[in-house]
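QA checklist item 7 of 12: single-chain prediction sanity check.
[x] sequence parsed
[x] length recorded as 195
[x] structure emitted
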Amino acid sequence: VRVQKEAFPEAAWNHGKLIGLPQAKLFDIAKEKCPSVSVYGLKEGETVETLAPDVPLDLQVPAENYAALVEALKSDGDTDLDFLIDVTAVDWVDHFDVIAQLMSTEKGHKVFLRVSLPKSADVPEEKRATSVLASLPSITGIYPAAEWKEREVYDMFGINFTGHPDMRRIFLGKDFPGFPLRKDFTHPHIIRKAV
């Protein structure tokens, strides 16, 4: 015998309270601390005010201002970005983007800081795939958790973090040739390219 479930009235869905500062306010604070900062990826006609409230603010910052802006956003009482979510990278044809993802555990907002690093043109073509092609100041003095995250970026992309206390590979052996998450990575025993 099939038991009939009791019918319950449909309850209204509570979206929950959005917490944290709006992106426009976060951008104003960042702009005050670093005038050369900009919002990454805005399309034609978009502004910071038109971003959806649940989208983290993605800021483009020059490499020379990166560590200072991270420090300022962490120590500012309004932003209070006390938690480093991740440090990662993206390999583009002519540059790398290093992205630090920061969050305020108290207020709930997130900010992504993106630094575009041109690939060094000083390295000969035959050595490019196995050479470090970019460098950025380390933020381990600001967020100790960045130590392993920056090592992972070094290990996978070959991006050096100056001032890092232990800049060596974290997953791969020290003699591993190349950097597996780069577009120019090849290894005869792992990858066979189509002719």
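[x] summary fact logged: The first strand starts at residue 38 and ends at 39.
[ ] second reviewer sign-off
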